[in-house]
Amino acid sequence: xxxxxxxxxxxxxxxxxxxxxxxxxxxxxxxxxxxxxxxxxxxxxxxxxxxxxxxxxxxxxxxxxxxxxxxxxxxxxxxxxxxxxxxxxxxxxxxxxxxxxxxxxxxxxxxxxxxxxxxxxxxxxxxxxxxxxxxxxxxxxxxxxxxxxxxxxxxxxxxxxxxxxxxxxxxxxxxxxxxxxxxxxxxxxxxxxxxxxxxxxxxxxxxxxxxxxxxxxxxxxxxxxxxxxxxxxxxxxxxxxxxxxxxxxxxxxxxxxxxxxxxxxxxxxxxxxxxxxxxxxxxxxxxxxxxxxxxxxxxxxxxxxxxxxxxxxxxxxxxxxxxxxxxxxxxxxxxxxxxxxxxxxxxxxxxxxxxxxxxxxxxxxxxxxxxxxxxxxxxxxxxxxxxxxxxxxxxxxxxxxxxxxxxxxxxxxxxxxxxxxxxxxxxxxxxxxxxxxxxxxxxxxxxxxxxxxxxxxxxxxxxxxxxxxxxxxxxxxxxxxxxxxxxxxxxxxxxxxxxxxxxxxxxxxxxxxxxxxxxxxxxxxxxxxxxxxxxxxxxxxxxxxxxxxxxxxxxxxxxxxxxxxxxxxxxxxxxxxxxxxxxxxxxxxxxxxxxxxxxxxxxxxxxxxxxxxxxxxxxxxxxxxxxxxxxxxxxxxxxxxxxxxxxxxxxxxxxxxxxxxxxxxxxxxxxxxxxxxxxxxxxxxxxxxxxxxxxxxxxxxxxxxxxxxxxxxxxxxxxxxxxxxxxxxxxxxxxxxxxxxxxxxxxxxxxxxxxxxxxxxxxxxxxxxxxxxxxxxxxxxxxxxxxxxxxxxxxxxxxxxxxxxxxxxxxxxxxxxxxxxxxxxxxxxxxxxxxxxxxxxxxxxxxxxxxxxxxxxxxxxxxxxxxxxxxxxxxxxxxxxxxxxxxxxxxxxxxxxxxxxxxxxxxxxxxxxxxxxxxxxxxxxxxxxxxxxxxxxxxxxxxxxxxxxxxxxxxxxxxxxxxxxxxxxxxxxxxxxxxxxxxxxxxxxxxxxxxxxxxxxxxxxxxxxxxxxxxxxxxxxxxxxxxxxxx
Length: 1031
Known about the structure:
Keywords: Signal. InterPro entries: EGF (IPR000742), Growth_fac_rcpt_cys_sf (IPR009030). This is EGF-like domain-containing protein. Residues 1-19 form the signal peptide. The longest helix is centred in the C-terminal third of the chain and has 14 residues, at 1017-1030. The protein is 8% helix and 32% strand. It has 1031 residues and is mainly β. A hairpin with a 2-residue loop joins strand 20 and strand 21. The protein is flat, with a radius of gyration of 47 Å. Among the domains are: 779-828, no CATH class; 832-863, no CATH class; 950-1023, no CATH class.
């Protein structure tokens, strides 16, 4: 064993008459200040290989004992252990049984009776120099552990790596090892996983839910919801027949990332409006709690709760997060429902003993037969009252509670009144009021028709009288489609009695054109029957058909008759039965409207187009008048000066393939005008009797005065609105908004979209970000992803949490990219195309900036002239910061001495910084050096080494969880395992192997292969040849 020790050495400079510090000018070694500093190439430099770059600290040697660590001295310019102290792992302490005066002298850190000994619950190491914690057994309680003298120090003392060392009850000394929740102890030596078959939400209440360590169902996790820990299907899965099946995939929704919502206002419309369907959440406009997101049109609709049963009530509001935790989501329950705990789950409920009133779902009612808590508690709106003595909700007299005591009901039976009905039990009034005068009370909740000239209708809603029978008073109501005539119920016109005389059946009749007088009338069909079935002037023709009267014809819908144009009506009953584009006259005739003429039986347009005046191709139309032209082609149409056809007036022009006339723009005339008579994008300017069609703001009249066009301006992209911008001279904001939308503005004689509020859409318009609505957090479980493959394989999309407070991973744009809500794509940037071509520039969001390690000099990006080198001078200037940013990340500038040093987690090797490794790293005098390598590494002070925490083992310079360790994600299990059922398990292509950890315990890890010999083709061929040779 070496007797010397090389660790952190504090060196002090030796005074000199002329002191020259590091990098100062020198001629020889004499003036160079500090130990191990020599004059090299005219400068004071450290004598290699060591260099602690601050002031005069150099070297790998000592000058005085003060330079050395505790319990060592400087001898021969080397630090060695003091007499009586043993060197081990770079430290000096006294071995076991050595004489001591205090605990700090001993390797065991325990001095008893002036001798170094092992503390309680510790035992000697094999070298008999130091001590190690004694491994203790596992118990279910402190009392058992204490009686067996098996108390622990910390987790590393437990014989099973999965067990933890926990305190005993209050006022007890010492701690004991216990298996974690979800495990049971076996032979006081092992923690065995408890596998649960209960898959929540359960539709029944069970007496013993037991513990849950893992789940029998695939894709299920143990999670505590409400009061119990049971198995739940993971996010993106749902329960079906006690299995977890992949949930039907919702249409893909892509969210903007956190940087995106900070750059853009996605919530303006939510703030400006007063709409209860939307709220602002995570700076996005989202569906409010109680509302559901509709992906097809990005709107929100109120959730409609549906009663399931007395256990699940109005549905489960427990949700499993992306971290496999169970949470209650109140937003899943529309008002007035709330989310409450029920054994193994949370449910949407009105509260215990209450439900949504079936006749008014906006309020909660108390169950029939259940006592109310106060006078403010409501009973069912219909047919129930609150008993002021018992405070319970009760059905009113004669009604019975049904539908799990949620409704009071009084029904009409399909049977007539007979035994065992008891009409004397209650007054028949409750039945006659509800079902008619012939209804009688039979039993609680049931009425029946008397059976004497009374029977229930098909829907069992009223007691009706029979048809065609002389009725005694009081009479029951006549059946539907019948009327009381005298003392009998008679079917209305168009209907006939059924064989049992209990209902009126509609006649099945056909309608034909007039064919002459009625024929073959052997039945009772009447003209009134025909007129009840068809519109217009209709008469009977045969037993099963009707015909139009002689002055009419069958209309286009085949459901009635229209009068012929010019025919005198035979009856004034149907004066409204004129064909389209015609009306009735005082002469009891149908006449074509203005601008229409008769063609056969129909009224058609007199003209289908306007012509130029004196157009030789125009056909003269007989009887054409100016009012016809105005009716057909607008207020700027008239009749030709030299013919009988329509033209546009001189201050107008034809549009839509000569089918209409528009006034010319800026033409002041006395003609009447409406916006329909003006071109698009105009208003009407009125001055006295004159008026003109004028262009709206931002639109300009074309040379031919026929169009209002936007200015000839281009859209320069999206920019922030600068309040210090120079006013545009040739272009106005109105020009920009008219052409590109409300969020456009003018800057530097160019139109831009206000990038904080809008983006350039595919149509080249400025479209508002806040136009787009997203699902609220209460629905994120429906749109959650587990990997990027769930996000449709679209570029620049990540599956991640929206922010640190999010419960679910969702598909969102990766950092550095921005969402185009219209195309549902993530763009890498929104810079001008010239940015990518510029040397050493790159686009970040909207800005074209210099790449890392470069700085802008005018229009160029220039690399920093400095290059960081270990132990060489540096400072905090901007150019040095650019230089360090371009470095590989292992160096930083020590501002105290303005020299480059290795970052925490790195060490100097020759002239480079290399990452520290857990193996052979001295840690006692280096604060947090182990955690800088891996957060689950700790410094074992006895061995002066970095060890992994209990339940972890070292692999490839990392601390990896052992098989069976609790986890929330695959990342926590390291690259060699997956997180399944909240426990780290091997990948399918791996097998479990056992190893002994640093604490002397057997732990399980995953190794490649499946535990059998694999024969390559070459090896198989070798065996065949060998066998052939030796036979």
